[in-house]
Amino acid sequence: MTNDEKQSVSHQAGAPPTPAPLPLAGEGKTERGSPRAFWRRGEPQVWVTSAALTIMLFLIILLLWVVLWNGLGVFWPARVAEVTLKDGKKLLGERIRGQINPDTDVKSIQFKTGNRDLDPHQQDFHWVEDGEIRSIEFPPEVYVLERTENGNFYGFLRRLEGPDLEPSETPVAEDKVRFALKTVRRKSAEEIAPISEELRDLGRRLQNARRRIRRLEHRGDDERLAELRTGADDITRKSDELVGWQRRLLNELRRNVVVTSDAGGREKAIALLDVVRFYKPNEMGFWAKCRYYLLRLGELFWENPRESNTEGGLFPAIFGTVMLIFLMAAACFPLGVLAGVYLGEYAKDGPLVRAVRIAVNNLAGIPSIVYGIFGLGFFVYGIGGLIDAWFFPESAAAGEPVFGTGGILWASITLGILTVPVVIVSTEEALRAIPRGVREGSLALGATKFQTLVRVLVPMASPGMMTGFILAMARAAGEVAPLMITGVVKLAPQLPLDGEFPFFHLDRKFMHLGFHIYDVGFQSPNVEASKPMVYVTTLLLLSIVLAMSSAAIVLRNRMRKRFLARTI
Amino acid sequence: MITMLEKPKKIALPRTRPDLTPAAETPEPVVETRDLHLFYGACEALLGISMKFYRNQVTALIGPSGCGKSTLLRCLNRMNDLIDDVRVTGSILLDGREVNDPSLDVIELRRRVGMVFQRAVPFPKSIYENVAYGLRIAGVGNRRTLDEAVEKSLRRAALWDEVKDRLNESALGFSGGQHQRLCIARAIAVDPEVILMDEPCSALDPRSTTRIEDLIVELRRRYTIIIVTHNMQQAARVSDYTGFLYEGALIEFGPTKELFTAPKKKETEDYITGRFG
Ligand SMILES: Nc1ncnc2c1ncn2[C@@H]1O[C@H](COP(=O)(O)OP(=O)(O)O)[C@@H](O)[C@H]1O
Ligand SMILES: [Mg+2]
């Protein structure tokens, strides 16, 4: 409270006007308690700002926690419960969660019961009301069989049957099933894998032949055409034969089955070829679970997805994501740095440059889908169409455009133009933050502007450029919308980089973790079954972005140390 | 003549410096300005300066802040070219050659007229590369030549003993005084005739200042030095000639002793006795 105010207060109280006394020690204390002084000291402002930070942190931590909690637990084998209902029915499954119906106040529990193929409604998740349950047990001899189709099977092993297997006792011992599994897999590798290999080769040849035929048709060279056509027909015939043979072999192998029984005792024969792995979750110890967890992680990283992406690995999506980021970087970093250098060093400050700068800063506000549409129109149809018209006219005419359709090249360039403003701005700012003395020092030694730039300024600005790069990378890794119309697919048959000449196939479609999340989470018919995969994919995408930015940050810090240490 | 034929566009400056003539009784001017005017846009910062800078002498420029000392200095190696909207009239002669000639090779000029700034900012490179920088950009790649030049320059800048074992360490890790001497070494390395120093000690502590002053006195034997300073004692200590600038005009110019002991103009007297500025 100021002295003036004090005086006015004492006037109102009717007391004689006295000169304002100097604040005494005791008075200071009472003042501190008054709300106005409290306000003026700024404590509420501190609280407001800190509350804002707390809310933000809370939300971010909550998000991370949800992802981590759900994502990390997915591969940990859960115990399988045998639920006996009051009406005598039994079911086997993993407890997923409980829920109380707000209307009826009845508690229900959701079980993942698997055995989709045995369920009349093809469901592998079931809700059971608490009241219906008589007992829940965890029988040690329950097995989980992960299958290539129809999801998990929960049940008991009965016996082995099949032409390549010795007949077994009932119930069969686990070792024998493992041995049988190995036998069947070896047979498959010996007999079927070479055929698949040959078929792939034939497919490639056929594709080449077709391309050549189309080219000749385009030119109208009839003589060679006839020759090529018979060649192509030969290939087709041969591969049809092979396919038939392969199918026969497969059917034969499929007759090797493990007969199982479900909770109700119903028997079910499962082809060993369809079994990915099986285990006894209720008997597994901690280390066995750890082993299983690592196994599943390995599968996640290195295998292809199964069952419309809800099971199996994510290898093609990881590969696509990382490659996309690298291509994006290759597209946007040089462009951004050069543009930033021009803006920062060469452009004379005028209304035009200022307008460009404002535009660059605000480009970030354009919705990314707009970039996608631009990419589709300009790169895919425009440039891609031109490339096709010049180099692959026959493919384009046959309705099989090469570059005139979405692909990893166009997707990464589209992401590149989406992220390039960040690189431009940070390059320019980094250049502008360099002390004037450095620039003048170099010029005063007779360096040209360009020499100064290359030898001194760019190294000094490189940490700043890296910052822009890191931001760009993080932004690009998380974008899905523009990819969806420029070449991402839910299942790509081939990687955009492989051992086949010319190794980089930038026209190919690709898979991407971000799109995978969207596709599995929102486009899959079996929502419950795909949920774990969504969390795992999210976690994986986060980790990849984190790993790549950490690497970049380490690099940047090293540059900082080297180029920007203490200057007076 | 041969250089003229090779580079018809650029007029090379003749290199006529006789080696290490002792300070002559009647010294010859290396740099001479004649009626030099400089405009920053519409604002005239130099109002017709005519003065001479003598060979192997230290000339100090003194005057209150904003009087145009730095501006004048930067004219001499055309550093003002870097600033937009600067117009210069009048003439500057370096060994009789017009510096303001637009066809003059500015790069060559700056090699012959080196500069040391108030804030010594080394390049983010090693000590060695800092000193070798000027030579490298001039296209010298021979390791022996570079080694010799680096050692010679560092010795002349009185820095050799301190850094000879750390030549490959980043220059950024040294002290401010060392930075300034490094910048002097860097300027010396390209073997200039004239060294311009714009308040080289104003960011340094007294000890480093003394070292730099000693160095300037030492360097005078080889180079023509023009130093801008705020510090009158410094001007008196290190310079042979002093020019006093005030509001863009050269008020008085003469041998340092005379100017400090018997100034001819009232403004000069006021300034050096600390009555203003
Ligand atoms: N880049 C510039 N643009 C416009 N005016 C300038 C610029 N640099 C210096 N000036 C002006 O020119 C005058 C002389 O400046 P300067 O030579 O730096 O003075 P000093 O070095 O003597 O302190 C000052 O009035 C200053 O405001
Ligand atoms: Mg100045």
Explain how this protein is built.
The complex is a heterodimer of chains A (568) and B (277). By secondary structure, chain A is of the alpha+beta class. Chain A has four domains: 29-72; 80-156, SH3 type barrels (Roll); 159-296, no CATH class; 315-567, MetI-like fold. Chain A has 17 helices and twelve strands. Chain A has helices at 3-12, 25-33, 35-40, 43-72, 174-219, 222-254, 286-302, 315-346, 351-362, 368-391, 393-397, 408-432, 436-444, 449-478, 481-484, 513-522, 527-564; strands at residues 81-85, 90-100, 107-112, 125-129, 133-137, 143-147, 153-161, 257-261, 267-271, 275-279, 305-306, 311-312. In chain A, the strands form three sheets. A five-stranded antiparallel beta sheet of chain A has the order 4-3-2-1-5, with no helix packed on it. In chain A, helix 12 (408-432) crosses helix 14 (449-478) and helix 16 (513-522) packs antiparallel against helix 17. The two termini of chain A are 45 Å apart. By secondary structure, chain B is an alpha/beta fold. Chain B has a domain at 29-117 and 193-272: P-loop containing nucleotide triphosphate hydrolases (Rossmann fold). In chain B, 35% of the residues lie in helices and 24% in strands. In chain B, the strands form two sheets. Chain B has a six-stranded mixed beta sheet with strand order 6-7-8-3-9-10, with helices on both faces. In chain B, strand 1 and strand 2 (43-54) form a beta hairpin. In chain B, helix 4 (127-137) crosses helix 5, helix 4 packs parallel to helix 7 (176-189) and helix 7 (176-189) runs parallel beside helix 8 (206-219). Chain B is globular and about 55 Å long. Mean pLDDT of chain B is 87; it is low at 1-11 and 14-24. Chains A and B meet through helix 13, helix 14 and helix 17 of A and helix 3, helix 4 and helix 7 of B. Magnesium ion (MG) binds next to helix 2 of chain B.
